[in-house]
Amino acid sequence: HVPELALVRFVVEDYDKTSKNDFVGQFTLPFTCIQPGYRHIHLLSKDGTSIPPSSLFVNVRITKLT
Q1: Which of the listed residues 40, 43, 49, 62 has the most CB atoms within 10 Å of its CB?
Q2: pLDDT tens-digit profile of 37-65?
Q3: What is the CATH classification number for the domain harbouring 8?
Q4: Domain contains 66
Q5: Phi, psi of 27, deg, nearest 5
Q6: What secondary structure does DSSP assign to 24-65, as a single string?
Q7: Is 42 part of a structural domain of the chain?
Q8: In the β-sheet with 50-60, what is the strand arrangement from edge to edge?
């Protein structure tokens, strides 16, 4: 296991049964940068520019697998 190389990607898409899913925003960060607790994940466009005020409000819990 190499957590230093792991990435976590959040992707938001507009789901629609009549057409393909439309990309809304995304954010990718190294696993080692994630801190437990409530966090705002600010979304970026496909070209990496900020999409204010869009964000995800997440509760992060990290547990070790044995």
Answers
A1: 43
A2: 999 999 999 999 999 999 999 999 999 87
A3: 2.60.40.150
A4: no
A5: -155, 135
A6: EEEEEEEGGG--SEEEEEEEE-TTS-EEEEEEEEEEE-----
A7: yes
A8: 7-14, 22-30, 37-44, 50-60
What does residue 4 show for φ and ψ, rounded to 5 degrees?
A: -65, -20
Task: Kindly indicate the confidence band of residue 1, based on its pLDDT and cuts at 50, 70 and 90.
Answer: confident
pLDDT tens, position by position, 2-33? 888 999 999 999 998 888 889 999 999 999 99
User: CA Rg, the chain, in Å?
Assistant: 14
pLDDT at position 61, please? 96
For the record, the structure tokens of 49 come out as 């520019």
Structural domain range at position 45: 3-60
